[in-house]
Design brief:
- It is a single chain.
- By secondary structure, the protein is α/β, with parallel strands linked by helices.
- The chain has one domain: Rossmann fold.
- The chain contains 9 helices and 5 strands; from the N terminus they run βαβαααβαβαααβα.
- It has a 5-stranded parallel beta sheet with strand order 2-3-1-4-5, sandwiched between helices.
- Bound molecules: BIS(adenosine)-5'-tetraphosphate.
- BIS(adenosine)-5'-tetraphosphate binds next to helix 1, helix 2, helix 3, helix 6 and helix 9.
Length: about 180
Amino acid sequence: MKQRILFLGPPGAGKGTQAEILASHENLLHLSTGDLLRAEVKAGTSLGQEAAALMIKGELVSDDLVLAIVHNNLSHYSGGWLLDGFPRNIVQAESLDSLLNQLKQPIETAILLKLEDDLLIERLLSRGRADDNEIVIRHRLGIYHEQTAPLIAFYQAKSLLISIDAGGTVDSIAMRISKALS
Ligand code: B4P
């Protein structure tokens, strides 16, 4: 089983949901940049205050800030991991590659969760998090298509990409992922 995995996909595709299931089955460290940022916001740190203003509008938080968080979590850890919601643009992907090269822990697989925009919007509206209203969701989707989707070709060129249909029940998608990894 692969030990260093990342999850790619639009907001609402179920990265967090599926990453949690896979990480607990395979005993991998689950690093969600969204969750880590929300924890900073909740704790009221200065980093959290900076992040909150951007997240509520559906903007990406600055690369430096997110990279520092990932660096802190991975640089002293030698077990398997699963990155969820990171990288989100080419700058983050290239910085991640150079960090992982230094650590001699390259990515083994990038799992792309694919779902149509209409279904993504429906799922996120029913979740109802602070940044889940329709205007902000459409903005996040726009940023995804513009900045994150180019990572599909980036990981395809490295022969690391696996595409998974993210429609259907949580269990059926988990099964597809597990089959693709076996
Ligand atoms: P994230 O926390 O990464 O959240 P997300 O993309 O909205 O959701 P995800 O795809 O994980 O969906 P989930 O499983 O929760 O990002 C939030 C914000 O943080 C960003 O907008 C940005 O501001 C900031 N941020 C995070 N990382 C960053 C980075 N690297 N750089 C800069 N900024 C960053 O599922 C969504 C909903 O669907 C849930 O309610 C779930 O229960 C439901 N669901 C899941 N699977 C389902 C299924 N099969 N059927 C029906 N519903 C399903």
